[in-house]
Amino acid sequence: MLARLAAEFYWLGRHAERIEHTARLLRFQLNRLPDRPVDELTLGWQAVYRILGQPYVGMAADGGDAETLVIPDAYTLAGKLVEERANPDSLVSCWEHARENGQRVRAQLPLPVWTCLNQGYLWIRDSNFNTAWTLGPSALVNEAVDRLNLLAGVVEAVMPRDEAWRFMELGRFIERVQHQAELLAGWIEFNREEAGAGALSWADLLRVCGAYEVYCRRRSTNVERAQALGLLTQDPEVPRSLRFAAQHITQLLAGIDPVGARYPMAPPHRMSLSLTASIEVEPTGLSGEGAEFFRSVGQDARVLHDLTMGAYVTHSLSRELAT
Amino acid sequence: MSQLRAAGGGVFSGYDLDVRFYDEMFGPRGNPREASRRLHAVLAELAPEDLVKLQDGVYRHFLHEGITFTVLDADNVTEQIIPIDCVPRVLTAPEWEHLERGLKQRLAALNLFLKDVYHQGRCLKDGIVPIDLVLGCPQYRMEMRGLKVPHDVYVAVCGTDVVRTHDGFAVLEDNLRVPSGVSYMLACRDAIKEAFPRLYRANRVREVSDYAELLYATLASLRPSQENPHVAILTPGMHNAAYYEHAFLAGEMGIDLVEGQDLILRDSALYTRTTSGLRRVDVLYRRIDDDFLDPVQFRSDSVLGAAGLFHAFRAGNVVVANAPGTGVADDKSLYAYVPEIIRYFLGEEPILANVETHLCREPAGLAYTLEHLDELVVKEVGGAGGYGMLVGPHASADERARYAERLRADPANFIAQPVLDLSRAPCFIDGAIEPRHVDLRPFVLQGRDEQHVVPGGLCRVALRRGSLVVNPSQGGGCKDLWIVED
User: Which candidate from A2, A257, A323 shows the least CB-CB separation from B262?
Assistant: First the structure.
């Protein structure tokens, strides 16, 4: 397929995954609004912003008018992540970018997928955050997740498993590894810095990742740090585990470039295997205090992105002429 | 002005017939024409709220599928849903067959004309068309002189604007460069079929759904030699006004939609850059104006085309459809000579008439235009989209005076035509059915051996009361066109 289109499909997958990541974190925090203490909520917002790599703009945990400001503060903080167009990671920006990617590959995108993507964009573009907030703080975010799930379902049902689909999935899983790694690292660091505050429990982490139920079924409702991190890192059956995503990346790359998957391997293939191995073999972050392991996984995902773009999209003119 | 009411009552109760204009649904006595009888009966039975629902359904179909056009101004790029009216326009099969014959005849003659002006120039020597009009036309490409175009098909895709008055059908202009609108024709059809499934079936409407298949076959037939040609559409990108159409056609034909950055020249052939290396292009359906096709050959500041594209075309390694330089045959000044061109090259009388046209490049034409400016529509010869024209009867004295200055300064840049009594068709406007002016753009395909016209076209409608401007960017919209069997 055209290299430019491959990049658009790839970014479509990345933007869709980014929406989901932001929405999951937001939903987690907004669902806590009714019954959590103010300082816990404040710390929660700080964590959400840090994990998303955004500067925190809310009040401090020990602010004087904290109780009266907690809802207005949540409104501002959530609004920045939902409707602020100047914020490239806000839900509306990401949806707009995803739709732009979709528009550029419209000729290759099955009509139901395009329609679903376009309807989602039109919905969020025309949504009024203020009005939605009156229906319940998390109403809009919940619908965003529902619409994203619908999109994922339509993709699953109608898209042929061809190169376009592979690039889209590749983008989705590379983004997922990067974000999940940031999330896990951020959660560890935040717990270490805010020891005893109890603002972010390991059960909360599982909830953000949609893995709380599976954890309870397999173990118990008593959530342990190492076991929760273990599940989210190494379990090959949990969709938001790092191992699950890394294995998919390897398979997708093998489908995109079967020759590159054989010896001597192409750089993206080599990198993806190395990433998978590091997750499977030596998850030092699970037992240690530091979050360095997850940071390094996130860094590997960035390198993998560069290698993928270099190998299939921006390959040099000289290489093209040599073929 | 004598007026009478259309038959039917209900949503038609406010439908005024104006005898100056041919009405597409009603005869002169206000009764529905035979071909529209079924449609009229169904509409007359509907309550306004039912029509509102239908119209809303049609609009949502367009909205959700993102059937848009892009409007560019100095500051903004705005994506707009093309307005669609839910009431189809109806033509009979014999009316259509007459149009079809005329359109095919016209395109055949224009292709012969283009071959001639870029080779022997017989028609210029014989005085059929003034030589300075052709050679002085900005769309005449010296680069095309003596260049062999595969199968002599300069124009593979043509969109001809046709209007109807009491005198019958007439051609308003030929669009021979990058005619657009066919995707809206197909989208309208899908939406209206969904809205009136039983009525559509009962009317035995001729199908347009094989357009993409015919277009692909037409383009593929122009290939230099390969068995399975690689056909691609070249688009300026997603901010182009017609991007929806480019993507739609590429999707329907299952071919690549490429931008200039996707193309590369190698050994005098054109290739696309793919994830697994280069892939040669055999036929390029370009949707970019000549000027921007190739920065090496044409405008050097173009970032939309591909460097070396024209070289590959000249070397015979890629077919470019429509060929560069076809714009010389759809220049508005040349339009006046098309009937003579048909007679000269085909030895036949034109089947479709032209609209009376005054060429301001000629002293008599300029004098007449200046004298009757308040009665005429004046257009720039290279203009398009309804921009830059003066509608004399609707313009103020000041506007006409300013336009007259422009005319005197550069008369060769203008033509003038009488204000046409464009036919009107019923449209659903603000809860009632009212007449609005319409035109029609059917699409003609010219392949190596065959010509095709799909039985339909982009029917544009001036949605503002009394307006004659049908362009979507200026208050126009579109509606479906049904060719019904007797």
Answer: A2
Q: Which residue of B has its CA nearest to A163?
A: B275
Buried b / exposed e across A130-167, counting CB within 10 Å, b at 16+?
A: eebbeeebbebbbbbbebbeebeebbeeebeeebbbbb
Using a cut of 0.90, tell me whether the model's pTM lies above it.
no
ipTM over 0.85: no
CB spacing of B278 vs A106 below 8 angstroms? no
Domain encompassing residue A294: 163-323
Q: Is the pLDDT of residue B1 over 70?
A: no
Phi, psi of B114 (to 5 degrees): -65, -40
By C-alpha distance, the chain B residue nearest A100 is: B238
Q: How far is B277 from chain A (nearest CA, A)?
A: 6
At CB < 8 Å, which residues of chain A contact B?
1-4, 6, 100, 103-104, 106-109, 111, 114-115, 118-119, 122, 163, 167, 256-257, 312-313, 317, 320-321, 323
User: How many domains in chain A?
Assistant: 2
Tell me how far CA of residue B38 lies from CA of B35, B400, B424, in angstroms: 7, 46, 19
| Same domain as A205, residue A256 | yes
Residue B204 lies in a domain: yes
Single out the residue of B244, B239, B238 nearest to residue B81, CA to CA.
B244
Give the residue, A287 or B451, on which the prediction is more confident.
Answer: B451
Query: What are the pLDDT digits (tens) for A14-68?
Result: 999 999 999 999 999 998 888 788 888 888 888 899 899 888 776 655 556 666 6
B86: in domain? yes
Q: Do A139 and A198 have their domain in common? A: no
